Amino acid sequence: MSSYASLKHIKASRIGSHVLHVQLNRPERLNAFNSQLWQDLHDCFATVAHDTETRVVVLSALGKTFTAGLDCECAAVQEAVSVVSEREDPARTAYHLRKKIADWQNAISAVEKCDRPVIAAIHGACIGAGVDLSTACDVRYCSKDAFFSVKEVDIGMAADVGTLQRLPKVVGNNSWVREICFTARNVPAEEAHHYGLVGRVFGTREELLENAIALANEIAGKSPIATLGTKHLLNYSRDHTVDEGLAYTVAWNAAMLQSTDLKEGVMAGLQKRKPLFANL
Amino acid sequence: MSSYASLKHIKASRIGSHVLHVQLNRPERLNAFNSQLWQDLHDCFATVAHDTETRVVVLSALGKTFTAGLDCECAAVQEAVSVVSEREDPARTAYHLRKKIADWQNAISAVEKCDRPVIAAIHGACIGAGVDLSTACDVRYCSKDAFFSVKEVDIGMAADVGTLQRLPKVVGNNSWVREICFTARNVPAEEAHHYGLVGRVFGTREELLENAIALANEIAGKSPIATLGTKHLLNYSRDHTVDEGLAYTVAWNAAMLQSTDLKEGVMAGLQKRKPLFANL
Amino acid sequence: MSSYASLKHIKASRIGSHVLHVQLNRPERLNAFNSQLWQDLHDCFATVAHDTETRVVVLSALGKTFTAGLDCECAAVQEAVSVVSEREDPARTAYHLRKKIADWQNAISAVEKCDRPVIAAIHGACIGAGVDLSTACDVRYCSKDAFFSVKEVDIGMAADVGTLQRLPKVVGNNSWVREICFTARNVPAEEAHHYGLVGRVFGTREELLENAIALANEIAGKSPIATLGTKHLLNYSRDHTVDEGLAYTVAWNAAMLQSTDLKEGVMAGLQKRKPLFANL
Amino acid sequence: MSSYASLKHIKASRIGSHVLHVQLNRPERLNAFNSQLWQDLHDCFATVAHDTETRVVVLSALGKTFTAGLDCECAAVQEAVSVVSEREDPARTAYHLRKKIADWQNAISAVEKCDRPVIAAIHGACIGAGVDLSTACDVRYCSKDAFFSVKEVDIGMAADVGTLQRLPKVVGNNSWVREICFTARNVPAEEAHHYGLVGRVFGTREELLENAIALANEIAGKSPIATLGTKHLLNYSRDHTVDEGLAYTVAWNAAMLQSTDLKEGVMAGLQKRKPLFANL
Amino acid sequence: MSSYASLKHIKASRIGSHVLHVQLNRPERLNAFNSQLWQDLHDCFATVAHDTETRVVVLSALGKTFTAGLDCECAAVQEAVSVVSEREDPARTAYHLRKKIADWQNAISAVEKCDRPVIAAIHGACIGAGVDLSTACDVRYCSKDAFFSVKEVDIGMAADVGTLQRLPKVVGNNSWVREICFTARNVPAEEAHHYGLVGRVFGTREELLENAIALANEIAGKSPIATLGTKHLLNYSRDHTVDEGLAYTVAWNAAMLQSTDLKEGVMAGLQKRKPLFANL
Amino acid sequence: MSSYASLKHIKASRIGSHVLHVQLNRPERLNAFNSQLWQDLHDCFATVAHDTETRVVVLSALGKTFTAGLDCECAAVQEAVSVVSEREDPARTAYHLRKKIADWQNAISAVEKCDRPVIAAIHGACIGAGVDLSTACDVRYCSKDAFFSVKEVDIGMAADVGTLQRLPKVVGNNSWVREICFTARNVPAEEAHHYGLVGRVFGTREELLENAIALANEIAGKSPIATLGTKHLLNYSRDHTVDEGLAYTVAWNAAMLQSTDLKEGVMAGLQKRKPLFANL
Questions:
Q1: Matching NCBIfam families, A to Z (chains A, B, C, D, E, F) (predicted)?
Q2: In chain D, pLDDT over 90 holds for what percent of residues?
């Protein structure tokens, strides 16, 4: 757990043996994203990808609210703004902006690429970068007090670190998706559930966390080879044709079916007992 | 507004300073699509793409109903039919049919490619080409009296100007999509909303228009650089993998973040006032 | 019908003139998939693809339940397991596993590629391979007693014959999709309908079959050129960008609009009578 | 021929019955591209696409040289530069630059999309936009005095109207492609032939034209359905996988094989006579 | 070898222990393709795909010439023609033509998909379907007397079973590719080599076969896991971006590097001896 | 230059003001790839991507030869082998092998993604990983004594860090590509040039370096915005359709044409002087 310990605005703690609880931890600023939080987010999930103890992640936030989004007063944004204003050549400015945008995109994508199911447990405000972040998770649960806002158009920009790419692929009513992206309005929890942005809504923050952790524990009891493959193949298939998805799955499972987990799973099933799977 | 003035079966009028109200205007034939209407549709939205005053479009229809679809008695269809029957060589017929289909597809796609959010406000019947048209819009609102029909199989053909391509990408229940495409049955407003074809249903035609215009005005108050980018990137991302969508967004925003709107948006937020954005 | 007659675990019978009723027919083993059933499934739908009498297929199951999924005690699985355990070289094992996985994928994909609408009528348990199979159908109806389970993680593997590829493309709530894939839990009929996995739920198995057959008959009365094209183009468009889908549709319809069905469809419409279409 | 007659900087004349000779016709400025020439190029090939008399096009240039590329002193460039310098907002400048670049790209792509084989006959200098243009042609012949230069880096920009997209796909030595794109150096005819940029080199301008026209006439004697399809499918296949290319070809030829040309071609072959094909 | 024995127009014989010599064997008709030969071609290479003895294939032809292409007088073509002329509905004709074209494409693609390197040894005429066939092989050698002709435009059609898809991807001068596809002219061996259609030219048919077999034997001495993977990944990478190719290679080699061949290969290298690899 | 200084097996030194000379620096082991060299390669080019001084890179090697490829005796390979042999579960082994392969791929791809033209200057042996590396460079020059070998099949594996993906896209004779991949034979410099693997061959190692550096200096004098864009767009276009490449170029150049370099380039051209461009 040592590399998690060095994170400043993210708190990562083990729940039981195989679930990692990752919490946004900058509550005094409503978990707004500054340079440090972007960096921590990336580093945390890059570490998860190599952490063979961890089979499932629960992502929540400390304090009053999930996240207020980008911290417009923080150094990171000042830096981005200064990149724009200090340079006289728009082409060179573009060159330097590219790196900044790509870095932030990579922090969000680290959640998707970490190869462990990530369950977001969202309470209070989930604004701007918070929507980018939550759509990169596998499962989205929230409490009744949660609300969502694709805030970017309000500050004169198109969302650029994942929302416009992932939101329409996790939600089944495109008219609604575009409406909330064009208006930046606050979407309450129940509406978010009705249109498919979240999978379940719970009455209180406690119930939310309890259920997210219960789900995580349930998944952690499954074969890590199986849940890893399921996430990996779902992501792959989202981005490819059915036939390409099938062909890639053949290549993947040619190795992954040669698992001792398959034998253990089948045996446990026949013996009506809970299977026990080794770490990755 | 001069180029809008030359349209015959489409009426385009300004609402407030930045919203264009586009109305199908062939009510005596239930706004059925003839050659002129296809041409007008294309020309209208090609003009929108260069009209820097217009930031949002509301698309509705004059008369009893949104549209009865293709006008089977009109010259356009006669021409298409005559293409088939006059020529003896099926290959040459195919060559000429190609151009006709492509022209009609381009008219519908002009709505998608005009780079301004388009809000469809649908009342009464929305049949055949009307479904093609509405799925090319960004947001779909309708009144309680509206109904939808993917009519094509009833006249012995597969829908070919956009419905089969876009409908499954705006709706989240594929079993239902296929059922209505295979049966051509009338889908009432509430069912259309339940399955995600429309974003909202209103009691009367008046409420429908009122709300569509209110939404348009709200969006028109946002940065035009931001709403343009949001539409452009949502369309791009629909058709690409998440990673391709992110990479393209980097290229796009490397220019578009260098906007004066970003400064205005941030300042207005800090000063708790409504931002004021220049035209494109 | 001779080639259908040679199937052992599938029963195929004609309903009326143009509907084929395909039934999983291994009720004594809860229609679990063994080698023979995989082969029969492939052969049945490969035959459908050349059967110009058949315009629509209803797929249901005989006995207590739709299917219990893969038959873990059958020879097919023994064979797969033995491929793994008999060979000492994991690379050569992978080479032989590839063929087995691909064969099973092809059996499921034969449903999708048969070019006739397939309506699944599901009762009782629909587990594992049953979900793969049903998501490859065009329309999914079920009875109230039905439940669904993406069972694979329970036996230590990622689903590999279609569920992970097709399920997210037929359902509009991705958070829910991932939850049920990671947990393998039983999903009741109403939940399956709410999230879009099935199009309709019926009270009893009788009503289910009645309605599935009624839908099939309705579609069978449409032009076979039109329904064939609609399925083909919906499948194509799911896997391509909107622009690619449109371009392919031009090529397809350049031939298919030269159909005598188009004339018959238009004439019947004008004469307010039911059209009569020839076989393919 | 009337629509060709209205072109100002392009001369289009019929050679024999089915070959159109298109000549860049601004020799006093070395056929440098100004606004008019861009527009004429687009209009000329858009007309070819509907001109059923024309089966093959020869593209050459009047005067001393093929083309000096973009006319940096002309209004078109002044306009582009003024777009940049007049506007203070780099984002809005980007928005307007987009349209200009896209227009020029479309002019070049019209050559590719016109569905008739285009044979470029190049003499003297072929610089900048001339390389974009020639790589959009099907066959490239040149005379010994020709030389080529991908000039753009010399004026501080990356080539953006087709060279970077098409050149690597027409030439088989990528190291060489990149070298000439990075250095902008003049490539003599023989080197261009050695590395695959041109198909043949002729001693004099007269031989060049003679051979280009002879090739055009030979192709014009083939079935127009066949040559149209060959160009269309080669372009399609360049941009798709082999399997996608094959699938599209099935759709295309399902119509195009029903041609009277097929019968005429086979009969002529058996009768050892030259076939005679109707226009499109 | 039993399944090879049932082939009528193809002769398949073992050379040494791991090379299969496949010969077109209808010399009395210049190996022209009739229904039987199409079927045999498909069946032969489908068998190769499961034949773990065979590691490499040499494909040549008996008699005076490689192949005269499609046999216009044979039943297959008569059948195709009769499909067109017997049916009155161009749409239904298209439906049936689709199956015929797809069948022929699949016969050619079986060569590509058989997962063993295939070396074509071509002498005499290689016309029409012969070019489709040879471009689906991995390596193309020919004798000095060989010539090639993309014959299809001469009979009024675009090549539709592989040439237009594969030829531009095996040859590095696109101007030349298009010229020979548009003209159907005979291309002599040396020209074919110069432009990259063949890898080597030999003086006589004997030298040709000798060298093709020597190459086959050399490859047959390599690890079959390695050569299988090399062919599979080259085909995959041709059809994907570099990044997609790399990602698929990771999945593939995660299994295939766990080979006993890797140890044997490394050991043999260190011990300066020839490695000895087991069959697949 | 500090981060370059920490590299152990790579030497990076500035030539003139804008060219970086990167040399493989493990001559005592013939520059064979061990863990350190893989890491250094990645780190070196990751640094180049942020080094605004550097406009062009020359990549060569110290000692007798370019590189002997993978160091089979080194820790990196031992580690890879031990991953395989230490673990009993082939699925978990696959999971760990994936990371290793991906790391090595990323080291090679860093060359491609560094956004500066890279000129490989190859002498002596260029084996295995050396071919992967050189095909990721933009321009390949070599001396007469150079030879190339796609060595992987000799040790029982398919090349997996770039050769199979990139080689066929830089070379225009696919028959030859496959022959050298299947046989692992040594390809002399002249043959490599003939088939397009290298752009030029020089008599001696001195001439080679002299010419590579001269080319680098020539490119370094161009606008860095232009050469960066040219490399970026060539890579993008290689992996996309022509139309996608054009669309991306519009987005890219909407920012990058707003460069002060454009003005400087045009002015210098008119004033017949050498332009002077600022760093990125």
A1: PRK06142.1
A2: 90
Contact A67, A106 (CB under 8 A): no
Which residues of chain E are within 8 Å of residue D256 when distances are taken between CB atoms? 157-158
Residue B82 CB neighbour total at 10 angstroms: 11
Query: Looking at this predicted complex, what is its ipTM?
Result: 0.95
Q: B154 in contact with C at a CB cutoff of 8 Å?
A: yes
Q: What is the DSSP string of C93-123?
A: HHHHHHHHHHHHHHHHHHHHHTSS-EEEEE-
All residues of chain D having their beta carbon less than 8 Å from the beta carbon of residue B88 are 260
- b vs e for F38-69, b when ≥16 Cβ sit within 10 Å of the residue's Cβ? bbbbbbbbbbbeebeebbbbbbbbbbebbbbb
Over residues F25-38, the pLDDT tens digits come to 999 999 999 999 99
Helix (H) or strand (E) segment spanning residue E142: strand E139-143
Tens digit of each residue's pLDDT (9 = 90 or more) over C188-201: 999 999 999 999 99
User: What one-character-per-residue DSSP string does F14-75 give?
Assistant: EETTTEEEEEE--GGGTT-B-HHHHHHHHHHHHHHTT-TT--EEEEEESSS-SB--B-TTSH
CB B153 within 8 A of CB C230: yes
Taking the complete model, does pTM exceed 0.90, yes or no?
yes
Q: Which 3 state secondary structure label does DSSP give D221?
A: coil
SS3 label, residue C57: strand
Among C139, C141, C157, C133, residue whose Cα is nearest residue C68:
C133
State how far Cα D275 lies from the chain centre: 28
May I ask the CATH class of domain C224-270? Answer: mainly alpha
Confidence of residue D270 (pLDDT cuts 50, 70, 90): confident
pLDDT for res E87: 61
CB contacts under 8 A, D 158-217 vs E, are 169-173, 196-199, 215
Question: Which CATH topology does E2-220 take?
Answer: 2-enoyl-CoA Hydratase; Chain A, domain 1 (3.90.226)
pLDDT band at F204 (very low <50, low <70, confident <90, very high): very high
Q: Name the residue among E251, E255, E258 with its Cβ closest to that of A248.
A: E251
Pull the structure tokens for residue D112: 């590719």
User: For chain B, how big is the Rg over CA atoms in Å?
Assistant: 20
List the strands of the sheet with E56-61, edge to edge.
Answer: E10-15, E19-24, E56-61, E118-122, E139-143, E200-202
Buried b (16+ CB within 10 A) or exposed e, B84-98: beebebbbbbbbbbb
Neighbours of chain C (3+ CB pairs under 8 A): A, B, D, E, F
- Measured from the Cβ of residue D267, the count of other Cβ atoms closer than 10 Å reads 13
| Rounded Cα–Cα distance for residues E14 and D78 (Å) | 72
- Look up residue F190 and give its two tokens: 């002249």
Q: What is the pLDDT of residue A84?
A: 61
Residues B57-64, mean pLDDT to the nearest whole number: 98
Contacts of A240 in chain B (CB under 8 A): 241
CA B63 – CA B124 distance, rounded (Å): 9
Residue F36, amino acid: Q
Identity (one letter) of the amino acid at A200?
R
Give the closest-approach CA distance of E267 to chain D in angstroms: 36
Q: What is the pLDDT of residue C75?
A: 58
Q: Which chains touch F (3 or more CB pairs under 8 A)?
A: A, B, C, D, E
pLDDT tens, E208-257?
999 999 999 999 999 999 999 999 999 999 999 999 999 999 999 999 99
Nearest alpha carbon to residue A170 among E276, E5, B237, C125: B237
Strand-pair category, B139-143 with F139-143:
unpaired
Query: In chain E, where are the structural domains located?
Result: 2-220, 224-270
Contacts of C227 in chain B (CB under 8 A): 153, 182
Cα maximum dimension of chain A: 72
For CA atoms A259, A265, A266, A268, give the dihedral sign.
Answer: positive
